[in-house]
Design a protein that fits this description.
It is a single chain. This protein is α+β, with helices and mostly antiparallel strands. It has 4 domains: about 90 residues, conserved putative lor/sdh protein from methanococcus maripaludis s2 fold; about 90 residues, Efflux pump adaptor protein, beta barrel domain (Elongation Factor Tu (Ef-tu), domain 3, Beta Barrel); about 55 residues, OB fold (Dihydrolipoamide Acetyltransferase, E2P) (Beta Barrel); about 80 residues, Orthogonal Bundle (Helix Hairpins). It is built from 4 helices and 25 strands. The strands form 5 sheets. It has a 7-stranded antiparallel sheet. A 6-stranded antiparallel sheet has the order 2-18-22-21-20-19, with no helix packed on it. A hairpin with a 2-residue loop joins strand 19 and strand 20. The termini are far apart.
């Protein structure tokens, strides 16, 4: 019995010494990724300048008449075009309007009487009872009464206009950001009532050296940078006159409500604007999502032959929309991982979910004649 036990133990020892491998763990499945291609894009050297977000509709709304303020909108309240911002005491204007209506009714009655008198005089002249001179006098009086009636109508319209002007109305949709007068104060003719700003009509205003006046045109591309994120835009206004003191000219471009919401920009926000300062050059570009930034540097994950991830260090340059200029061991057409690269290791097999989506080319400058 002892021999059998010793044999079994010896057999197990020999198997262990022979290095018979245990069952291998299952192979890790390929990582699913999305890709985009390296492209050639145009990048122009940029002159960076500070800019400010402003509203295209920003007004200190003034009163057209003078009077005591009885109502005024609260700061922060939203008003629609045509709605009242403030109301002045209109008691005097209502009295004037009533007086004008009474004058109009009186003159209308006088004119009706003269017209009837003219009809009677016409009959009497035909019958030879009175002379034509008397008829001429009645006709002249009727014409004067007609002129008086026109003047009374104008006076009534003026009274009604003053009554309407007692309410200072919003010239556009906006937010009341400042009250320039308070309830109970007397408002002089033409004095501002409140500052009204349309927060849905935003634009960026910046300045560039006057030496770029011959190069910049409406429609040229510019880059807006906010909190480290960049976006591409087109110039709407290039004021071709430089300031004598600063030697700079003003540039403007619009922000859609969606763009303002995505960037969190509001009126008065400070931004950086990149303005093309030279002719564009062609360079390799990759989507911004392809860049993996680490402490040791920036790299991209290229899908090499056999669908294997390969780490490629790169240096970044200018940006044009969602594309970023890169310098490194890349060629146009290389497939780069844009989704799923966070935990991807060099040498790991991948499964491309989209078959390689080419990146869109974003131009930063319009070709010049």
């Amino acid at each position: 019995m002892n021999r059998v036990v010793r044999f079994a133990v010896s057999f197990q020892f020999l198997l262990a010494c022979a290095g018979v491998p245990a069952q291998a763990p299952p192979t890790q499945p390929p990582a699913r990724v999305q890709t985009a291609a390296v492209v050639q894009a145009e990048f122009a050297p940029l002159h960076w300048a500070p800019g400010t977000v402003a509203s295209r509709e920003d007004a200190r709304v003034a009163a057209e008449i003078g009077g005591r303020v009885v109502e005024i909108a609260e700061v922060g309240s939203a008003v629609r075009k045509g709605e009242p911002l403030a109301r002045l005491d209109d008691a005097e204007f209502r009295l004037r309007e009533r007086q004008a209506r009474a004058d109009l009714s009186r003159i209308q009655a006088q004119l009706d009487l003269v017209r009837k008198q003219e009809e009677r005089y016409l009959t009497l002249v035909r019958d030879g009872v009175i002379s034509g001179a008397q008829l001429d006098q009645v006709i002249a009086e009727r014409r004067m009464r007609e002129q008086d009636l026109d003047a009374a109508r104008v006076a009534l319209e003026q009274a009604r206009l003053r009554l309407r002007q007692a309410q200072v109305r919003a010239p556009f949709d906006g937010i009341v950001v400042e009250r320039l007068v308070e309830q109970g104060e007397y408002l002089a003719l033409g004095a501002p009532v409140a500052r009204l700003v349309n927060t849905g009509a935003l634009e960026v205003r910046t300045r560039a050296p006057v030496t770029l006046a011959g190069r910049l045109r409406p429609g040229d591309g510019v880059t807006l940078r906010v909190a480290g994120r960049s976006s591409a835009h087109r110039l709407d206004v290039v004021v071709p006159v430089g300031d004598e003191a600063s030697r700079q000219l003003e540039l403007r471009f619009a922000l859609t409500p969606d763009q303002a919401a995505k960037t969190g920009l509001a009126v008065g926000a400070a931004v950086q604007v990149g303005v093309p300062s030279d002719e564009p050059r062609r360079a390799l570009a990759v989507p911004r999502d392809a860049l993996v930034m680490r402490k040791e540097g920036t790299h991209v994950m290229r899908v090499a032959e056999g669908d294997v991830a390969q780490r490629v260090p790169v240096d970044t340059g200018a940006a044009a929309g969602d594309l970023v200029e890169v310098r490194g061991a890349l060629r146009a057409g290389d497939r780069l991982v844009v989704r799923g690269s966070e935990r991807l290791q060099s040498g790991q097999r991948v499964s491309v979910a989209d078959g390689g989506t080419p990146a869109a080319v974003a131009a930063t400058a319009r070709p010049r004649p």
